[in-house]
Amino acid sequence: MLPPPRKRVFAGERARALRGRHGLNQTELAQRIGLSVSYLSQIESNDRPMTDAVLMAFARAFPDDWADTGADDTMALLAGVEAALSATNFADAGFTADAMRRAVNQQPLLARHLVSLHAALARSQEQLRSLDDALDSGSETVLPWEEVRDWFHASGNYIDAIDRQAEAIATELAAGGTVASAIIDRLARVHGVTVGNAVTLDRPLRSFDAGAGVLSVDPVLPSESRLFLLAHQLMRLELATTIAATMAGAQLRSEEAFQLLSIGLANYAAGALLMPYVAFRAAARELRHDIDALRLVFGVSFEQACHRLSTLQRPGATGIPFFFCRVDMAGNITKRHSATRLQFARFGGACPLWIVHEAVAIPDRVLVQLAETPDGVRYVSMAKGLVKPSGSYARPSRRYAVALGCEVEYATDFIYGDQLDVGGERSAMPIGVSCRICPRRDCEQRAFPPAGRHIMVDPDHRGVVPYTFD
User: Fold this and answer.
1) Strand partners of residue 381
2) For residue 89, is pLDDT > 60?
3) What pTM was estimated for this model as a whole?
4) What is the CB-side half-sphere exposure of residue 150 using CA atoms within 13 A?
5) Whole-angstrom distance, CA of residue 404 vs CA of residue 409
């Protein structure tokens, strides 16, 4: 017996509301969904119903916003089945949208079990990631800087009250000449703080004598770094109440963690001051997230521009969901945030096949990569090696790389994907999060077997590693 036909779904108001929440125009939303602008316009005006394929496209692009149309209960299940069948084990099975719709209609219980199994697999991967964290950290105690890093991650790397207040101050400063001169003038005029240079050999990057009202900044620093430190000090003074209120809601375990959080929030505010949200988001979209172009427009460093892009999560005006990280010469991830499905190893040990490791050794050169994780998700990654001078032979320069990336569905808006074959069957580099949770059997860069797998050793046969695993 055939299932009854699904009633026609008209959801124009819902589509318009979603577009408004994300700050998209019709052209941008149509590109995101994969429709023509005229087709989307007809949907929004309720002149055309949403087909199963269109409903699934909305659910795939906006899973949190489009979990249920209110017309029936099959759309969310359709999206869940598609996500499960898009996983690595089923990616080549050739399931069509029509086949998935029939499966949901004719075997809904089986479809729900498939979605549940996929969710269980995702949870098991998260548990393995936690095990990997524990093995790498060597302790169950969370260190203060780890607490703060996790707090920002849980906050979506966006702090609305601080961001908006910094943006308002940026508007006031815009009438005062250059940003640097306007900040220095405001520090002196409003807070009685004068700015000087640190002169000792062991000079800190920034030193503030509150009693004397003197801020000293390392003169060797690049101009954009000096500007950021000036902005940091201004924000610590002007947003003290807002920062304190934000910290009051944080569930941290130590005084050291709270102190680090106060610094982190002031740094966040400094970035929001130098790269005001609305203006920066508009410029990023216009320039297709070209980091070098953005840093010239706003007078900031390459790293600062990358970091700011990862914070564009304002409700109603979100940016592209990016991941961002900073990696040192030893491969340690010293900064990380992901608004994508990619999650980083917490204590280093990132996949050596990821382009960011090569970028550390090649400063001032942008490298791009199309990468695919074991769950079948593809990412466009950009990485650049950076060197910060120390100003003295006695102190080594700081060397590291930053990486920024997004899922392939946003590649048309990310200039670094232009030269990549994002749809090629073998064009993506297979990467993982950490060897301990990576299931790939044929990786020539594997350092050790995945946790929880039984290894098999054959003394008479040797591959890249001296074992296989089940």
Assistant:
1) 369, 405
2) no
3) 0.76
4) 15
5) 15
